[in-house]
Amino acid sequence: MHRNPDSRTERQARAAWLAYRRLHERVDAEIARDLERECGLSMPDYDVLAALTELESPDTCIRVRGLAAHLSWAHSRLSRQLGRMEQRGLIAREPCERDGRGDDVLLTKSGRETVETAAPTYNSSVRDRFTVRLTPQQLAALIEIERAIAKGQ
Question: Which PROSITE patterns does this UniProt record tie to the protein (predicted)?
């Protein structure tokens, strides 16, 4: 029976996509369980706290829109997440002093302490559930794949 190379390529592409989805969901779920169990944080909580820590500087205000772009989240998703975190005292939102439009997002003392406490758990979980399971060549290939896809945006 003659095989159509295009259909084989399509099957391989579909298998690669499904493998990526399963990998992403499995590893994210494992890391999320570790964060919840050890720190009482959801993965979105940690993502926001870590991003604020990364972006924060004395002369930089972090706008909600900028944070949403940094996280690649929809503005509405981030707004709901920030509301939950604000209620728990992890972040604060204040009107932007520069132009009065929009809000700045600030880490509270509690938020800073929480992310500093959670970071070792997160880093250990990423290492144990992802990094050590791959060779340096596989890690480099993943970085290359992400960059190739990002160029297309």
Answer: HTH_MARR_2
The DSSP letter of residue 88 is T
Q: Which helix (H) or strand (E) holds 103?
A: strand 103-107
CA distance 73 to 65: 9
Mean pLDDT of 41-50: 97
Task: Calculate mean pLDDT across residues 60-69.
Answer: 87
Which tokens go with 152? Answer: 């297309």
Say which residue the tokens 């969901």 belong to.
25
The token pair at 121 is 């758990």
Q: pTM value?
A: 0.85
Q: Give the C-alpha separation, 44 to 122, whole Å.
A: 12
* Domain spanning 9-151, CATH architecture: Orthogonal Bundle (1.10)
Q: How far apart are CA 9 and CA 89, in angstroms?
A: 51
pLDDT at 3: 60
